[in-house]
Amino acid sequence: MKAMNLTKKILVIALLTAVAACNTVKGAGQDIESVGRAGDRAIHN
C-alpha cells in the first residue's frame, strides 16, 4: 500500500514538472519570436 502511494506521488510530481517545462519552452519561444520581430522592425524602419 505504501509503495502505491509513493508511486502516485512520484507520478504527480513528474506530471507537474513536465507541464512546467512545456510552459517554459513555450515562453522562451515567444521571447525569441519577440526579439526577432523587434530586430526586423529596426532593420526596416
Describe the structure in your own words:
The protein is an all-alpha fold. Helix content is 96%, strand content 0%. The termini are far apart. The mean pLDDT is 85.
Q: What are the main properties of this structure?
A:
96% helix, 0% strand, mainly alpha, 1 helix, 45 residues
Strands, helices and their partners?
Blueprint: H1 2-44
In brief, what are we looking at here?
With 45 residues, the protein is mostly helical. Helices cover 96% and strands 0% of the residues.
What class do helices, strands and sheet pairing give? Answer: mainly alpha
What is the molecular shape? rod-shaped
Helical content band: over 70%
With helices defined by DSSP (H or I, 4 residues minimum), what is the helix count?
1
Low-confidence stretches: none
How much is the average pLDDT? 85
How many beta-strand elements?
0
Largest sheet: none
- The SSE order reads H
Give the amount of beta strand, in percent: under 5%
Radius of gyration: 20 Å
Give the termini separation. Answer: 66 Å
